[in-house]
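Final report, Chapter 2: Outcomes

The project's central promise was a pipeline that accepts a single protein chain and returns its three-dimensional structure in a standardized token representation, suitable for archiving and comparison. That pipeline is now operational. To close this chapter, we reproduce one record exactly as it appears in the project archive, with the input sequence first and the structure output second.
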Amino acid sequence: MTINTAPAAVAAQSITKTFGTEDTKVAALDDVSIAFRPGDFTAIMGPSGSGKSTLMHCLAGLDTVDAGQVAVSSTVISGMSDHDLTLLRRSHIGFIFQAFNLVPTLNARDNIVLPLDLAGAKVDEAWFDQIVDTLGLTDRLTHKPHQLSGGQQQRVAVARALLTRPAVVFADEPTGALDSNTGAEVLELLASSARDMGQTIIMVTHDPHAAAYADKVVLLKDGAVVGHLDDPNADSVLAALAELGE
């Protein structure tokens, strides 16, 4: 089943998501429609409880919606079985988490190729070499996570996310565990992935300086999209968040 989302890498149509029951019911997402174009780097921001993490989880198929549809590469994922979602995420979606989520017993190379190993797919060595060279990991491939700095571990996570050439990479506070200098390096790598490789990136962040690396900022409040910023900078993001009452 497909819907007409040809211009979009990821699209949501009128999605809602609630938590709790009766008196404790809370609308985390309230009739949200949004589309993300291929090759765009988009930051999702909003006050605490605005629904930004819930939106990302629903777009990535990590959580289900109560109503509406989510599509990745024009394929509707709403209502998919867990097995089919797992297969789709392996081939179409990359993830970068704040906590890196590397396997401690595997070296950097094995961590990077792990999604392909799990899928029984062959590594495109030329693409692998290009990614690790771009990320400055060529001389770190035999190192295990505990032998790498925080920035190097996050670069491994970025490489793992890019290796499958996914339709979209979701980044959940990717610099939250990094110092400011290392965080800036990782954000520039994400920006260059969109700019130079055409990679679609959707990042949830609370940091205006991180959001300034994106092409666009989507603003959420009370489970609804309430605005956006094109070509954001830290000052414009701070002003927008202040208007939302963060």
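Archive annotation: The CA atoms of residues 209 and 234 lie 5 Å apart.
This record, like all others produced under the grant, will remain available to the consortium after the project formally closes.
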